[in-house]
Amino acid sequence: MKSERFQHRHIGINAEEEKIMLAKIGVKSLDELIDQTIPQNIRLQSGLNLPEALSEHEYAEEMALMASKNRICASYIGMGWYDTVCPAPIFRNVFENPVWYTSYTPYQAEISQGRLEALMNFQTMVSELTGLPLSNCSLLDEATAGAEAAAMMHALRSRDQVKNGANKLFVDKNIFPQTLAVINTRAVPQGIEVVVGDYKVFDINSEFFGAIIQYPNSNGSVEDYTAFTQKVHAAGCKVAVATDLMALTLLVPPGEWGADIAFGSSQRFGIPMFYGGPSAGFFATKEENKRNVPGRIIGVSKDAYGKSAYRMALQTREQHIKREKATSNICTAQALLATMAGFYAVYHGPKGLKEIAKRIHSATALIADELKELGYTVLNEQYFDTLKIGLASGVSQYSLREYAEMRDINLRYYEGGEVGVSIDETITEYKAHELLAVFSLAAGRMEVFMIDDLPEKLTIKDEFLRKSEYLQHEVFNSYHTETELMRYIKRLDRKDISLAHSMISLGSCTMKLNAASELLPLSLGGFQNIHPFAPQSQTQGYNELIEELGEYLKEITGFAGVSFQPNSGAAGEYAGLMTIRKYQESIGQGHRNIILIPASAHGTNPASAIQAGYETVTIDCDAHGNVVLEDLQAKADLHKDNLAGCMITYPSTHGIFEKEIKEMCKVVHEKGGQVYMDGANMNAQVGLTNPGFIGADVCHLNLHKTFAIPHGGGGPGEGPICVAEHLIPFLPHHPELDGSTVNTVASAPFGSAGILPITYGYIRMLGAEGLTHATKIAILNANYLAECFKDTYGVVYRGTSGRVGHELILECRKVKDTSGITESDIAKRLMDYGYHAPTLSFPVHGTLMIEPTESESLAELNRFVDTMNQIWEEIREVENGTYTKEDNVLVNAPHPEYEVCADEWKHAYPRSKAAYPLQFVKDNKFWINVARVDNAFGDRNLITCLCDMG
C-alpha cells in the first residue's frame, strides 16, 4: 500500500464534499450522475489497462532513471537546435514559476499586463534583430513558421497574379530539410507548387508568387541575397527568409536588404533543446502586411482613463474566431518560451548578445583554421557559426563518426560525405580542444592543440557586417544583474492572474492543475540537453518515454496508432486531416473534398479543414444544442460522392454528450467518409468512453487540456493524433527520422518532446482508477455549478436527461435586455473579485462558458459561486434603479488600484463596493494595474514595438 496517492493531491473533491455536491444536484451517487450524463451505448464495459499508479516519489525516481538513459553529448549538429545557457534567474523565476506557466492566453488584457509586456519585449527583440517593423508574439516552430510564410505570400498575391494563376513558390535548395518538408506538406492542399533550386541561377517568371531562402543557409554559408531579392521584387513577388537571431547580432539583417518576411526559431536564446521543443518560432514582416500576419500580435492601447495598456491587437485573426475564413493554421503559439527568450535578451542586452555571438564566431573561425591545417577543407567561405567540411584524404565519415561518438561528440553528416559543425554559446577551450582532437585522430595526426583561450577573430566580410543599432530601449539596458532581473520579472508576474491565484473557469480550454511533480523532471539535463537528431542509440530514455506514452494514449483513445509530431491541438487537427487525405488518395478516393462540421464543433475545425484543402459544410444544431441527425444524413447523402469525412467534437462545444453519436459515425462511414473526433474535450471521456469505441477513425489530443501540460500563457502545446489501424501508414513522417517527408508537420520528429514527461506523469501517477475518477469529478463539478446557477443566469444547453458534460454555458443574453449589462461587463467585473473570466461569447454569442476542472476544491467552487451570485445581485441593482446603466460597478469594471486609491472618486457607489465586494476578496485582493482597455483604439493606432511607444 502506498503511503500517499497522487490522486488525492490532484483531484480537488474528497468523499465528504462529493456527498454534499451530489445532494445539491439531486442524485444518490456519482455513478448515477454519470449514467444520466453519458449515453449507455458508448460506455466502456471494462476499465483502462494501464500500469498501477505511482506515488510522486516513485515517479521522480523513475524519471531520473529514464533521463539518465539519454546520453548527453556535445552537440554540433545545428540545423536549428543549439545547446544553450538558460540564465538561472529566468529558469527559476519563469520556467519553474506557476504564475508564468499556468496563465491563460492574454485575451483579457487587464489581468495579463505582465505577460503582455514580456511578449512585447519578444516582439521588439525579433523586430529589431530582423530589421523588419512588425513581429508577432511567436509561432510553433521554425518549419511551421516557414509554412506560414509561404501561405502569407500566397495570400498577398496581386490581382493579376491571382487572375493568371500564379501558384509557384521557389525554395532554395540550401534550406533546412525539415523546413522544406513542412512547407511541402502545407503547400499541396493549398494548390501551391514548390520549386526547389539554386537561388543563384533561379529564373523567376509570372507563374511564381514568392521565394524562400535561408540566411545563413543550411550549410552555414552567409550569402549575399541583395540582387536576388531585387530580381524577385521586380517580378512582383515576395521574399521570405529563414534566419538566426543570434547571427543577426553580427550580420546585416534581412529587412535591410529587402526581405518581406523573416522567420525562424528563438530556441538559442536560452531555451534548452528538449529533444526538439518546446521553443518559440518567430515571424516578422513589413508594416503593410499586418492584416495577413499569422498568429497573435501584442499591441499598445489605452485604458478607460487614458493610461497606456498592452493588449492583443487584431484579435479576429485567431483562427477559431474566423473559422472557415481563416488563412492560417495557428492557434497555439509558444508564449512561455517566447517570454523566456525575451527575458534572455533583456538580461544580456545588446552588448551581451553581441559578445556571445562574437565568441561563437571566434571559436568557429579558430576551428576552421585548425581544420585546414589538418588537411580538411572548409567549404563555406563566409560563415557565422557553422562549417561544412570536406574530409581530409583517407578520412571517411564512418571513421570520423566513431572517433566523435567515443568522445561524446555529435556532428552533422551530409549525404554527400561532408561533415557539418555548428558552434554554440556553450563552447569552451576544452570543448574546442576535444572537437579538434576528433578530426586529428581521424586524419591519423597526433596534433596537440594548445587552446588556453578563444581569441576574438572576425572572418565575416565587411559587406555582411551589421552597422545598425538594435535593442536600444531601456528595458534591454537596465536589468543585467540577477537582482534587477529577478525584481523585473516579479513586477511583471504581479500583474497577471494565473492558477496560482484562483480557478480559471474557461470552458473548452480546460485550465487544470499542472502538478509540480509532473513538471520537475523537465529540469533534468537528460531531458533538456538532447538534440532531436541525435542518434537513436543515445536517446534510450526518450525512446522509452515516447513508446510507453504512445501505448497509454492508444489505450485511452481506443486506437491503434499514434504520432507525437504535431506541436498544438490545431496542428493535430491538420495532421489528422492530412492523414485522412493520404489514406483516401491511396485507395483511389483522393477526389473526396467535403468535410461536414456541426455548428457545435470546436472553432478550430473549419479552419484546419480549409488549410487541409477541404470544403466545409455546416451541420445544423437544434434548440437544445444537439446535432440535427436528419440534417447530417441529408448533407451526407447530398455529398456522398465527394464526402471525405466529418469533424465532430465530443462531448460537443455546447457541453453535452449527444445520444446519437454512434449513429452520426455510421452515417459518415456509409457514405465513404472518415470520422475525425476533435479531442479538445477528451477529459470528459477518459476511462468512461473513447473515440475508437464510439466509432471515430482519428482524433487529436490537446495535452494542455486533458493531460495536464501547462497552458503557459498561450503555449507550449502538443497535439498528438491517434488513429485506427488503416490510417497508421499515413501518419506524419520526418526526413531526419525515417527519410520520408510524407505529412511532415513540425520541425522535430516528435514535436515538443520535452514536455511529454508531464503527460506521462499525469497518467502514471493517476493510473486507471485515478484517470477515470478525474473524469467523473470534472463532470460532477460542472453539474454542481449548473445546479447553482440554474435559477439566476440559467444554462443554455443540457443533455436529454438534463445534465451537462464537463462544461456549461451560462445564459447572459436576457440580462442585457433587462439591465444593459453584457457578458463582457460580467467578465470584467470578475477581475475585481480576483477571477479570470470564463470563455466569452463562444461558442454562443452573448454567453459565458464555464469549465471547472477536477482539480478544484469545493471551497474554490463555492467562492466562484458566491462571486457570480454577488455579481447577479449587482446586476439586479442596475435593473431596479439603485445604480444607473451608465454608472455601476459592472460597466466601470475592472477597478484598478490607481483609481481606487486616488484622492478623487467620481462614482455613485462607494470604493469598498468596487474593491472589496466580498470578505474573501478583502482577505486576498488581486490588484489590477489598468482599467478597461480600449480595444478599438489599439487597432486604429497599432503599435507593436517598444521603440515606437515614444
UniProtKB/TrEMBL annotation:
Cofactor(s) the record lists: pyridoxal 5'-phosphate
Domain Glycine cleavage system P-protein N-terminal residues, every copy: 8-439, 453-728
Gene Ontology MF term list: glycine dehydrogenase (decarboxylating) activity
Record keywords, A-Z: Oxidoreductase, Pyridoxal phosphate
Signal peptide as annotated in the record: none
EC number(s) reported in the record: 1.4.4.2
Presence of keyword Iron: no
Keyword hit for Oxidoreductase: yes
InterPro entries: GcvP, GDC-P_C, GDC-P_N, GDC_P, PyrdxlP-dep_Trfase, PyrdxlP-dep_Trfase_major, PyrdxlP-dep_Trfase_small
EC supergroup of this enzyme: oxidoreductase
Matching SUPFAM superfamilies: PLP-dependent transferases (SSF53383)
Reactions it catalyzes: N(6)-[(R)-lipoyl]-L-lysyl-[glycine-cleavage complex H protein] + glycine + H(+) = N(6)-[(R)-S(8)-aminomethyldihydrolipoyl]-L-lysyl-[glycine-cleavage complex H protein] + CO2
Domain Glycine dehydrogenase C-terminal per the UniProt entry, residue ranges: 774-895
Quaternary structure note: The glycine cleavage system is composed of four proteins: P, T, L and H.
Annotated family: Belongs to the GcvP family.
The protein's role, per its UniProt record: The glycine cleavage system catalyzes the degradation of glycine. The P protein binds the alpha-amino group of glycine through its pyridoxal phosphate cofactor; CO(2) is released and the remaining methylamine moiety is then transferred to the lipoamide cofactor of the H protein.
PANTHER family for this protein: GLYCINE DEHYDROGENASE (DECARBOXYLATING), MITOCHONDRIAL, GLYCINE DEHYDROGENASE, DECARBOXYLATING
The protein's name: glycine dehydrogenase (aminomethyl-transferring)
Source species: Dysgonomonas termitidis
Gene responsible for this protein: gcvP
